[in-house]
Amino acid sequence: ERMQNHLKNLKEINDGLRREIRQRMGEDLDSMDMDELRGLEQNLHDSLKTVRERKYHVLQTQTETYKKKVKHSSEAYNNFVRALQMKEDNPFYGYVDDEASHFEGALALANGSTHMYAFRLQPNQPNLHGMEYAPHDLRLA
């Protein structure tokens, strides 16, 4: 019996909420008197005000965030441009297109000095340079 009363109360609450939703959607307004209609209008007005405030708050927050991002990007760009100009102005930093003689000297050293990197065999490896087959190396099994 107690559960049935509780179920009955829950159904009444559910029906009331459904009726309120229908009224807010513009349906089922015929059964309302003038005071109820004014109250519904006030509730809708308050809800609209709350939704607009929330919307404007979200837009303002997003706008501020994007302004900060743009400002940060602009500062990073300006710092990059300043650093690039400093590298161009000061030859001790960055790339300098100096005389070509350095390049030619390095190229001549690389091409003309190949004997600098000679390789030699390790003592535990067989001598591959004088490798030949002598009759004493060949045996019949």
TrEMBL record:
A GO cellular component annotation in the UniProt record: nucleus
PROSITE patterns: K_BOX (PS51297)
Pfam families membership: K-box
MF GO annotations: DNA-binding transcription factor activity
Name listed for the protein in its UniProt record: Deficiens
Domain K-box, chain residue ranges per copy: 1-90
InterPro entries reported in the protein's UniProt record: TF_Kbox
